[in-house]
User: Fold this.
Amino acid sequence: MNELTMNIEKWAKNKGLDQAQPEKQMLKVIEELGEVGASMARGNLEAVKDGIGDTLVTLIILAMQHGLTAEECLEQAWGEIKGRTGQMIDGVFVKSSDLEDSK
Assistant:
């Protein structure tokens, strides 16, 4: 994963994306994520796979534009969720704190 991330960052720098506006990159993230949803709606697993990959690429670039790495973003997220408790409700995991807020 580290080698792939480094390759993506190098590619992005070669294209000048490291100096581009993060707001524009966020639009690319949303565009690619929309393609994932459309692929799921059509039941096209190969397109889902491609869309998830494209979304990850756009997120790696967005992190880089903010002086962050994908790894440190994932580490922070993992630190927050690793001990999280909650329950599945209608196929969606709802964290305990959200369950308490809805009471």
About this structure: The chain has one domain: 2-101.
